[in-house]
């Protein structure tokens, strides 16, 4: 059966179901003489008579009846296979492993993208993993992840596409009782005004891109930040600020975190101080489920 052209099987099923060459030809969109020739070619290849030719139609023989059952099953399976392959290509079926940094996950954009993707492709198996940017990029290279939401990578990102989806400002987090807070009346402060402050920063390995951005911005403002506390995670940074151990510069999206005793100020005269959010995926693999999530991300980013 594997040597038989599937097209011949489709012609055969059409004739069997219509019981008439002319009606079958109309159904499948070809002329009657070529269809008749194709049916005879199928009979010759199988070495059996599939139809009794009647004055007003075509009647299945016992051999034809047996073939009809199998032909329907074969064609149904093939159609299902083709449909499945096309759904995979459209990103509607399959698996996807998604990574994100902690600071990226705190931005409303990331859960919005994942939620939109789940709604658009509910049958895709989705797994998620949190790590730092460099580890996520390396996991992409090793094909342990398919896509990641990351901050700016530091070092070699060869083989991985880094696509910027949005850029947010960075703000100052400081204890509510801090003199710079102005009893809650102040809304902004110059970066240079922090020259004598104790800084709390997330450890560089956890977020090298943001870490280096903050250091560079401070130096451009005329000072090197005095880092007195290293935090493992961004949320830990806010806890240390609330405890009065120093100030921190954080992505603006973290202002949504309800950290009691912490207030936020805009930073003035701080060139280059921003927090980009990127999509990272392997070069040339922005198709299927990965392409679908990228499309959802781009759509949401365009509306932000």
From TrEMBL:
<feature type="domain" description="HTH lysR-type">
    <location>
        <begin position="4"/>
        <end position="61"/>
    </location>
</feature>
<dbReference type="Pfam" id="PF03466">
    <property type="entry name" value="LysR_substrate"/>
</dbReference>
<keyword id="KW-0805">Transcription regulation</keyword>
<dbReference type="InterPro" id="IPR000847">
    <property type="entry name" value="LysR_HTH_N"/>
</dbReference>
<dbReference type="InterPro" id="IPR036390">
    <property type="entry name" value="WH_DNA-bd_sf"/>
</dbReference>
<dbReference type="InterPro" id="IPR005119">
    <property type="entry name" value="LysR_subst-bd"/>
</dbReference>
<dbReference type="Pfam" id="PF00126">
    <property type="entry name" value="HTH_1"/>
</dbReference>
<comment type="similarity">
    <text>Belongs to the LysR transcriptional regulatory family.</text>
</comment>
<keyword id="KW-0238">DNA-binding</keyword>
<protein>
    <submittedName>
        <fullName>LysR family transcriptional regulator</fullName>
    </submittedName>
</protein>
<dbReference type="InterPro" id="IPR036388">
    <property type="entry name" value="WH-like_DNA-bd_sf"/>
</dbReference>
<dbReference type="InterPro" id="IPR037410">
    <property type="entry name" value="BudR_PBP2"/>
</dbReference>
<keyword id="KW-0804">Transcription</keyword>
